[in-house]
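Dear H.,

Thanks for agreeing to be a second pair of eyes. The structure we're designing against is below in token form, covering all 86 positions.
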């Protein structure tokens, strides 16, 4: 559910983006819905406090690799050992 701010400054549309982070016109903190569970989150949140999914790929831990990479690595190691022994 995208929450729209009141259109109270349509005279200068570009001025909205000149605000420093954390400064807003309205009283409520800016929230964005979690793309996974729709939980309202602070706009600068890096991950969801409810479902614990990271909101963007850049924020995800970089060391996390898919399982198939490790499977392939182990298979290669086993093949190398087998070839060295034979
Ligand atoms: Zn979530």
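And this is the sequence the design step returned. I haven't edited it by hand at all.
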């Amino acid at each position: 559910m995208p929450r729209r701010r009141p259109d109270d400054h349509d005279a200068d549309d570009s001025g909205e983006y000149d605000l420093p982070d954390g400064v807003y016109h309205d009283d409520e903190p800016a929230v964005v819905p979690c793309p996974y569970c729709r939980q309202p989150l602070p706009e600068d949140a890096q991950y969801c406090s409810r479902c614990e999914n990271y909101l963007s790929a850049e924020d995800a831990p970089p060391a996390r690799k898919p399982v198939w990479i490790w499977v392939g690595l182990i298979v290669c190691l086993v093949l190398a050992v087998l070839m060295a022994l034979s």
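Two observations from my side: Residues 67-85 form the longest helix (19 residues). The pocket of zinc ion is lined by residues 34, 36-37, 39, 48, 50-51, 53 (CB under 6 Å).

Warmly,
E.
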